[in-house]
């Protein structure tokens, strides 16, 4: 529909048309924070997006001056929320969008199937030093494939804890597990149940930074102490 079509007709000429016009007009929501940024939204904050195939979503956008990032997780050392949630809770997301939260595996899947995304994980370690990790591609498969994680190449200074070749420490190419869905590769354990949070477990490994559940990074030694906060964004 052409913009401003309602102004083409006057009330005297066709009031019925004006009424119809207002009914069929709809606002097209952007598919992610990058599209919002590219159309002039440069402030950080909560926005409504609508990924293809999804309902409308409220998301936290981080606009860095060059790009718009869609936040998929924030997690603090002294978080107010528990990460010991069930499959369906992880599917649709939980937490406080303005604080600690998980966007939801289904929505992350729908966003990442739209185009090529990279993911960036930022954190501040216990000494206040910022660290980051980026993967130049990031994709979650659909629920039928257990939201399997597919990562690209690592770059950063926080350490590669997701696609490391260390035995039992691989998260790339793993299926998502929750306390009530054991999709990991440990035959005798549900890693998500043991470790108290959903994740792309292999055979449990060293996923958990003590006190920071749902973490993207596993090697506290690389960080010189536990991080105070972690954010992940697309
Ligand atoms: Ca298992």
TrEMBL record:
Coiled coil: none annotated. GO terms for cellular component: fibrinogen complex. InterPro entries: FIB_ANG-like, Fibrinogen-like_C, Fibrinogen_a/b/g_C_1, Fibrinogen_a/b/g_C_dom. Pfam families: Fibrinogen_C. It is found in: Secreted. GO terms for molecular function: extracellular matrix structural constituent; protein-macromolecule adaptor activity. The keyword Nucleus does not apply. One of its GO terms (biological process) is positive regulation of heterotypic cell-cell adhesion. Keywords: Coiled coil, Disulfide bond, Glycoprotein, Secreted, Signal. Residues 24-205 form the Fibrinogen C-terminal domain. Its main location: secreted. This is Fibrinogen C-terminal domain-containing protein. It comes from Crocodylus porosus.
């Amino acid at each position: 529909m052409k913009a401003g079509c309602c102004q083409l007709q006057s009330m005297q000429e066709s009031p019925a048309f004006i009424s119809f016009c207002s009914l069929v007009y709809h606002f097209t929501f952007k598919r992610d924070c990058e599209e919002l940024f590219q159309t002039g939204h440069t402030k950080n904050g909560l926005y409504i997006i609508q990924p293809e195939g999804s309902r409308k979503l409220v998301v936290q956008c981080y606009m860095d001056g060059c790009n718009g990032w869609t936040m998929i997780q924030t997690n603090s050392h002294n978080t107010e929320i528990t990460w010991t949630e069930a499959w369906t809770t992880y599917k649709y997301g939980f937490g406080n969008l303005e604080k600690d939260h998980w966007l939801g595996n289904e929505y992350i899947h729908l966003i990442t199937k739209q185009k090529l995304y990279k993911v960036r994980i930022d954190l501040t370690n216990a000494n206040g030093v910022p660290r980051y990790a980026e993967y130049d591609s990031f994709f979650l498969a659909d629920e039928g494939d257990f939201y399997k994680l597919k990562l690209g190449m690592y770059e950063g200074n926080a350490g590669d804890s997701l696609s490391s070749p260390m035995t039992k420490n691989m998260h790339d190419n793993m299926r998502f597990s929750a306390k009530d869905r054991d999709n990991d590769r440990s035959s005798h354990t549900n890693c998500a149940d043991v470790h108290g949070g959903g994740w792309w477990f292999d055979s449990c490994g060293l996923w958990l930074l003590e006190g920071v559940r749902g973490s993207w990074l596993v090697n506290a030694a690389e960080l010189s102490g536990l991080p105070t906060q972690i954010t992940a964004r697309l």
